[in-house]
Amino acid sequence: MTRFQRSIASFDASPGLRTARWLPVFAALAVLAAPVTAEAARGARAIRAYDGTWNVVFATTRGNCSSGYSVPFTVIGSRVSSAGGGRVSGSVSRAGVVAVRVSVGASHASGGGRLVGSYGAGWWRGIITGDYCNGTWQATRG
């Protein structure tokens, strides 16, 4: 059994009174921090609103590149990545604005656009199998 140098009865009860003085300060800080915390939570939900796998269909409007290719992308938070094949890097903002770079072998392209709900659309340009091309893309969340 452990023996203590001081008995429990010898501890001063007044520190509790000193702590009580700080309760209004802590309460005021909590009230000030609540809107910031709520705003951060709304921002996190806004970014997470685009999470999932997106099926992106590319159409060529200029150049000698095939149209109709469908490529799956993954969105997690503010990051865009490949859901299969090729290297994809990019970002999506809280407002749904997208910027992406894609490369497969010697072909590479970049593009931008906007996601709204479960749909998206935008533009792209790049060098595909040696030809400079550009066009549009449309996306649906699957």
Question: How does this model look, in words?
Answer:
The N and C termini lie far apart (65 Å). About 23% of the residues have low confidence. 24% of the residues lie in helices and 48% in strands. The protein contains one helix and eight strands; from the N terminus they run αββββββββ. The protein folds into two domains: 37 residues; 93 residues, Quinohemoprotein amine dehydrogenase alpha subunit, domain 2 (Lipocalin). With 142 residues, the protein is α+β, with helices and mostly antiparallel strands. An eight-stranded antiparallel barrel has the order 1-2-3-4-5-6-7-8.
Strand content: over 45%
Question: What structural class do helix, strand and pairing data support?
Answer: alpha+beta
Which spans have pLDDT < 50 for at least 5 consecutive residues?
A: 7-11, 17-44
Strand order of the largest sheet: 1-2-3-4-5-6-7-8
Please outline the major beta sheet.
Answer: 8 strands, antiparallel, barrel
- Please state the CA-atom Rg, rounded to the nearest Å: 28 Å
Q: Count the beta strands.
A: 8
Assign an overall shape. globular
Helical run tally: 1
Q: Helicity level, as a percent range?
A: 10-25%
Please provide the ordered H/E string of secondary-structure elements: HEEEEEEEE
> How many domain units?
2
* CATH overall fold name of the largest domain: Lipocalin
CATH class of the largest domain: Mainly Beta
User: For the residues shown, what is the average pLDDT?
Assistant: 78
